[in-house]
Design brief:
alpha+beta, 4-stranded antiparallel beta sheet, 23 helices, 17 strands, 52% helix
Length: 631
């Protein structure tokens, strides 16, 4: 076939040109570009669409960021409609702020950008002992984010510019203490209430159902009785941890590893140092920093001439409030406890030595190394379990790396079965039944989203081919294939009859509780005997006394000028509550009044910034074109 194509290449090229050229004539290059960029618009900002593909990508990035920060986070929360909608709202917000920056000509100066970069802790950690930036490590850091240094700095500049949009409003917001106290007193007001709850479950015994009613409820609510789409699968796991379990180590290798690594295995060295610190903020004017540096040089000369006076000089001059009173003593510490320039100098000094001036983000330090605590060297027998673990892990990782490519190629090339890969790599073919599209916590590799997505892909479902080898954890790859597929279906009434009955009883019980509650409430309002009501309790927003949220809101919303006041609260499937408000009590005097006022002022400033953002949404004609999910 390929010989035929080569022999008739000219005819084939001509045929393709006949097809392609008219398309360019009719639609132009822009038409093809637009075709690739097409996609359903999910929102518009200032006349520009946000496409579904952009939303999907933003949510993937956001979900990945949250998984890295919180590995134990339930994946279902990230895949929920509410989480996706929240991502869209953030995307819209960024576009609104970017539009405001452009229209209002807001700009971030080079000086402001430089100050922001200097204040970034992740960048401060990249400084050399002389205070200069390690450019190579900086480039590596931003490359991990998929950016060049120029692109990273451009993004930071853009973020700083966008902060100006709402920062100017939020930074100038304030609330006078008198206004704050009025609002806080109202918010924390206490009320003495009596609450009678008519629980739906107490009416369940009174519900009588016929077969016809059960059948009708089933017909009207078949969406409640769906069996989800399910698959049965086979899968293989290439796992470095499992490889390690099967390894047997040579005695000579263990002893050689001990000799090479005994110092590291015995523990980390700790050092004790004292220092004199003169504060000099990174953003301070050069003239001011030079004055501080000159004073630090003078102190350095003083302690070098009389090292025994170091503690007294530190007490008199150091601006480190935590150590000055102790003569600058910082106690023992290991690597990673101090900022890197400081740490590098401490671990390069000999006992009793005094350093040159050391510049960090805090200012200028003079350091004296006062003691070294070397860890006790452990014997081979003491370290044997750890050595075996470390060596097995290293060898297992090596074997895993050597096998991973071959494993991936084999499951792809022999896609009709997992057996060739299982035989080649001596792996067990495992099985699982009843998998659904959503990850189920606790199901191991089968809870991996990428693996599930591959299994539920059309090719896997229809052709039962192997998935690609997917990294399901560090040092772990999994390939799987669908054995059988059951589409989603409505369960027959015979299977779900008891579930239908329970739902209908719960619905009728709640209805009876509401009707009985409404009848009792009317009677109580008309002057019926209230002795059956429970004892009164004092509730407030900060101390609800176990009262349900809906009941608390109803109690605090009644008119305090008409006491006693009554309210009926529908608790849904839980039943009904009757609330009697008997007294309104002033809040207790707060223990931290000024702190509360400051917190209120922050809330107020945030509310003003949010109001300004809502005006910006109107200004830039924001439209979100997908419905907000119901709570």
């Amino acid at each position: 076939m390929f010989d035929s194509i080569r022999n008739h290449k000219k005819y084939l090229m001509g045929f393709l040109l006949i097809l392609i050229i008219p398309s360019f004539v009719l639609f132009g290059v822009q038409g093809f570009t637009d075709f690739n960029q097409r996609g359903e618009a999910v929102a518009t900002v200032d006349g520009h669409d946000i496409r579904k593909s952009e939303w999907d990508e933003a949510h993937r990035n956001e979900a990945q960021r949250l998984r890295e920060q919180m590995p134990n986070l339930d994946a279902k929360l990230l895949d929920s409609d509410a989480a996706r909608y929240a991502t869209l709202e953030r995307l819209v917000r960024d576009r609104v702020l970017a539009a405001a920056v452009q229209k209002d000509h807001l700009y971030t100066s080079d000086q402001r950008l430089a100050r922001a970069l200097q204040e970034d802790p992740s960048i401060a950690a990249l400084r050399k002992p002389d205070g200069s930036l390690d450019v190579e490590r900086y480039a590596q850091m931003v490359a991990r984010q998929g950016l060049t240094p120029e692109g990273f700095e451009s993004r930071i500049r853009s973020d700083l510019s966008m902060r100006q949009v709402l920062g100017g409003v939020q930074g100038t917001g304030f609330a006078p203490p008198s206004v704050a106290q009025v609002s806080l007193n109202a918010f924390f007001e206490r009320r003495e209430v009596r609450v009678l709850t008519l629980a739906a479950k107490d009416f369940a015994a009174k519900v009588a159902l016929t077969d016809a009613e059960i059948e009708q409820f089933y017909k009207d609510n078949q969406a409640l009785f769906q069996a989800p789409e399910q698959i049965d699968v086979e899968y293989l796991v290439l796992d470095a941890a499992e490889i390690a379990k099967g390894l047997t180590l040579n005695e000579e290798d263990l002893r050689a590893y001990y000799k090479e690594n005994v110092a590291k295995l015995s523990g980390d060295e700790e050092r004790r140092a004292s220092h004199i610190l003169l504060n000099a903020a990174a953003g301070a004017p050069a003239e001011q920093r030079e004055k501080v540096k000159a004073k630090a040089r003078a102190l350095l000369e003083q302690v070098r001439k009389a090292p025994e006076t170091f503690a007294d000089v530190a007490k008199a001059n150091s601006q480190d409030t935590g150590s000055a009173a102790k003569g600058g003593d910082l106690e023992f510490f290991g690597r990673g406890a101090m900022v890197k320039p400081f740490e590098d100098v401490v671990f390069a000094l000999k006992k009793g030595e005094i350093s040159d001036l050391v510049e960090t983000e805090f200012g200028y330090h003079i350091i004296q190394l006062t003691d070294i605590k070397a860890p006790k060297q452990k014997t081979f027998e003491e370290m044997r379990p750890q050595i075996e673990t470390d060596l097995k892990k290293q060898q297992a990782q090596k074997r895993f790396a050597e096998s991973a490519d071959g494993f991936g190629n084999m499951v792809y090339e022999q896609a009709e079965s997992l057996k060739p890969a299982a035989d080649q790599f001596k792996l067990e073919i495992k099985t699982a039944k009843g998998l659904i599209r959503q990850p189920v916590p606790g199901s191991g590799v089968l809870a991996n989203e990428r693996l599930l997505a591959a299994l539920f892909a059309p090719d896997s479902l229809q052709n039962k081919r192997n998935t690609e080898a997917i990294e399901t954890a560090s040092g772990q790859m999994t390939a799987a294939r669908v054995v059988s597929h059951a589409p989603a279906r409505t369960l027959p009434l015979a299977e779900v009859r008891e579930s239908v009955r329970a739902r209908l009883i719960a619905q009728r019980s709640a209805q009876m509780a509401r009707e009985e509650g409404a009848r009792k409430l009317e009677g109580l309002k008309s002057g019926s005997d209230t002795t059956a009501l429970p004892a009164s309790v004092v509730v407030s927003r900060d101390n609800p006394q176990g009262v349900a949220g809906q009941v608390l809101r109803a109690a605090l919303s009644t008119d305090p000028k008409q006491l006693p006041s009554w309210a009926g609260v529908d608790l849904g499937e839980q039943g009904y509550a009757i609330v009697k408000v008997e007294k309104v009590l002033q809040r207790a005097t707060p223990s931290a009044q000024n702190q509360e006022v400051q917190q209120y002022a922050q809330w107020w400033a945030t509310a003003e910034a949010q109001a300004h953002y809502e005006l910006l949404k109107q200004r830039f004609k924001v439209k979100i074109l997908v419905p907000e999910p119901k709570q």
